[in-house]
Amino acid sequence: MEVLSLGEKVKKRRKELNMTLKDVAGSRVTPGQISLVESSKSNPSMDLLDYLAQTLDVSVEYFMESESTQAERICQYYSRMAEINIELEEFEKARMYIEKGERYIEKYNLILPKAKNLYLRGFYEIKKKNYTPGYDYLFQCNVIYSIHNIKGAYLENFMLVAKTFMDTGSLPMAISYFHKSEALFTEGILTDEIMLAKVYFYLALAYKKLGRLDRAKEYTGKANEKFAILSDKDSYAMFLSRVAERHELEGNLEEAGKYSAMALNLFKNCEEEMEMGNIEFNLGKLYVDFDDYQSALEHLRKAQTIFSKNTEKLVEVYLVIAECYAHLNRKEACAEIISYLDRIIVEEDFRGNIKLYRLKSKVESLFSNSRDALNYLILALNLAREKKMAEEESEILILMAKIYLEKGKQVDSYKLLEQSLKITEDGEGER
After folding, report:
1. Element at 344 (helix H, strand E)
2. How much is the pTM?
3. Residue 423 neighbours by CB distance under 10 Å
4. What is the DSSP letter of 191?
């Protein structure tokens, strides 16, 4: 890809049309005048520029586009391709695109493309779990946005930092940055309702993890007011990105830019659809925590629709739906879901089968069948021990201890709790 001066554009277009200097000049001007324009030794008047545009079948705007504007378009393409490859974890390819953009940024002193490149460097480092340099790049990016008073651009940075803090367990910091994101909407800087709903959801999740159920419930309700439901698009997006790369190699910036934009939009749509499914699923789980099973089912059914082709995620959703039906005493509906889970969870899915045994135990317990509840936990425990799944074994022992305690068998309950504690301590010792 290259940035062309006005004269270079005239010469390039003339050669594309297989025209000579004399052909272009016609009776309007001399071939020498055209040669001076092509070599940038003479700037054409608007009349001559209009004549050249008509003769060479291009727009006047094409000739008048500045070199820095061309460079910005090239950087935009490289940024899109870098972001696509970071999402795909093709890190070497992503770095290559970032560095390609950097060359144009430095040569033409492009401010906003520089900020975008700093964001991409931060995103790149965070994806590779290099958090300190990642945050540093994002801070440098925000300095540029601050100097140029581009407040709306903060959102991408705030959300990336907040999600990273939440993933690494720094909940107060995560909540702080989610609130910074929220402020961009409350102050009227941004108006994207879908994005605001996501901010509310993440605040609900962060407060839930922090144990602040009052604030979690508040933001769950806010998210619930905002959300609306947004099939396999990933393969098509991959195809479009390859088409963009082909056009890049051929030097066709316009087509490369078009296909890279389409690919990135599709990747973002796919990612957003998955995120929306996870959000609906977790909103459902939040309402389960609040004992509001009817509201939980509303969100879980939306997640069920979104994950209709994703068996793994669908199993997770159905496990919670069955629990809701049990709490609502809808025995037939609950039995139907459990029967479906029995069919789709394969024998080799040990973790899935353990979850199903635990669900069956919980359902039987809710229906006051403590003997069957205990039997299902014993089946889960045996499978966890056989497959050496220590964390699951420890959790199941605690559940069994609760049942024994409810039966008044305190000694048996304490023995199970001791076994669970030993497994936990042994695991920590190995780490």
Report:
1. helix 331-344
2. 0.60
3. 17
4. -
Question: 101 to each of 113, 122, 141, 240, 263, how far by Cα in Å?
Answer: 8, 15, 15, 20, 19
With residue 32 as reference, give the H or E element that holds it.
helix 31-38
Q: What is the pLDDT of residues 126-159, one digit of tens each?
A: 999 999 999 999 999 999 999 998 888 889 899 9
CA distance 382 to 389: 10
Distance CA 261, CA 80 (A): 7
pLDDT at 409 over 80: yes
Q: Which domains does the chain have, with CATH numbers?
A: 6-64 (1.10.260.40), 68-149 (no CATH), 345-431 (1.25.40.10)
pLDDT in tens, 44-57: 888 898 999 999 99
pLDDT at 18: 94
Q: Following DSSP, what letter does each residue of 401-427 receive, concatenated?
A: HHHHHHTT-HHHHHHHHHHHHHHHHHH
Q: Give residue for tokens 């022992």.
A: 397
For residue 231, count CB atoms less than 10 angstroms from its CB and return exposed for 0-12, middle for 13-18, buried for 19 or more. exposed
Residue 30 has pLDDT above 70, yes or no: yes
Closest CA to 80 of 236, 252, 248: 248
Buried b / exposed e along 395-417 (16+ C-beta atoms within 10 A) = bbbebbbebbeeeeeeeebeebb
The number of beta carbons lying within 10 Å of the beta carbon of residue 308 is 13
- For residue 204, which of 188, 215, 193, 196 has the smallest C-alpha distance? 215
